[in-house]
Write a structure and sequence with these properties.
Blueprint: E1 2-5, E2 12-18, E3 23-28, E4 33-36, E5 39-42, E6 47-52, E7 57-62, E8 65-70, E9 76-81, E10 89-96, E11 102-108, E12 116-122, E13 125-133, E14 136-141, E15 147-152, E16 157-162, E17 174-178, E18 186-191, E19 197-201, E20 206-210, E21 216-221, E22 227-233, E23 239-244, E24 260-264
Antiparallel strand pairs: 1-24, 2-3, 3-4, 4-5, 6-7, 7-8, 8-9, 10-11, 11-12, 12-13, 14-15, 15-16, 16-17, 18-19, 19-20, 20-21, 22-23, 23-24
Length: 277
């Protein structure tokens, strides 16, 4: 695995391969920045995740709202509030779903227990799906559109939930991957074209792959200790990009912590879904 971008992010997150621009974008949440194409986009509150709308525009989740952002002009347009009346929380992990919606998790700014939630934006409105979430992560979707995945990192379990024909949960979530016995904490995740889950293990310098039954298949080593989220990209969607975080490392921080990495894989990812406003 090699360094894709040497910028040291305090909390690198939300990597997104834009299929029309053929470019990677990612966030440094606590420094309120979006990176990509050699540019830095600075915001006035935490930003954490995005989907794509068209060639030049992203759908961005921030501390208080979901908004559109024009990559060339910097123009922002408010779409809907996101926990705007809750000063305790900010957005965290999120991803566009196969139905044109966007799932976004929140969490307490100081990791307050149960302060967060997981919401879904769909055609103009936001509905809360799950409450009492401490650290929302691993939001991703199976290629057959049948399942969504998510985790509350502190539970050490990745959940899977069946979806209906419009992408809403139609059953109770079930445990898909349980890492409690291994001592791992699942962070960001993505599902490849074969339906296998790739999930970063926070603090363990790796991204692990699980098959469609949740069985461990192997892991990719990451030079940074706190790997935070993977994403597939590149012309063949066979390159795995991984963000990382330097936060909380102090004197223990190594030279690679907080950088963004890439590795060529034998797997192929899904094309990122487009958000429909």
């Amino acid at each position: 695995m090699s360094v894709f971008d040497p910028t040291i992010c305090t909390l690198g997150e939300g990597p997104l391969w834009h299929p029309e621009r053929q470019s990677l974008f990612w966030f440094d949440i606590v420094n309120m920045r979006l990176y990509g194409e050699g540019r830095v986009h600075q915001f006035d509150e935490c930003v954490s995740a995005a989907g794509w709308l068209d060639h030049d525009s992203l759908f961005v989740a921030s501390e208080t709202q979901l908004f559109t952002y024009h990559l060339e002009t910097g123009a922002q347009k408010h779409v809907v509030p996101l926990e705007a009346d809750n000063a305790v929380t900010r957005s965290n992990d999120g991803r566009a779903d196969p139905f044109g919606g966007f799932w976004i998790g929140s969490m307490g700014k100081n990791t307050e227990k149960g302060a967060g939630a997981i919401h879904r934006y769909y055609r103009g409105t936001v509905e809360t799906l799950y409450r009492d979430i401490t650290v929302s992560n691993a939001i991703c979707f199976s290629p057959d559109k049948r399942f969504a995945h998510f985790t509350d990192t502190h539970t050490q379990q990745v959940m899977r939930v069946a979806l209906d024909s419009e992408g809403w949960p139609k059953a109770a979530p079930e445990v898909f991957v349980d890492t409690r016995s291994d001592g791992f904490f699942p962070d960001g995740a993505v599902v490849d074209a074969e339906g296998c889950l790739w999930v970063a293990h926070w603090g363990r310098s790796r991204v692990a792959r699980y098959d469609t039954d949740g069985a461990f298949m192997g892991a990719v080593n990451v030079p940074a200790r706190q790997a935070s989220c993977p994403a597939f990209g590149g012309a063949g969607l066979d390159q795995l990009y991984v963000t990382s975080a330097a936060m909380g490392m102090g004197d223990r921080a190594g030279p690679e912590d907080g950088k963004t990495f890439v590795i060529q894989t034998q797997s192929k990812g899904q094309r990122e879904h487009r958000v429909i406003l």
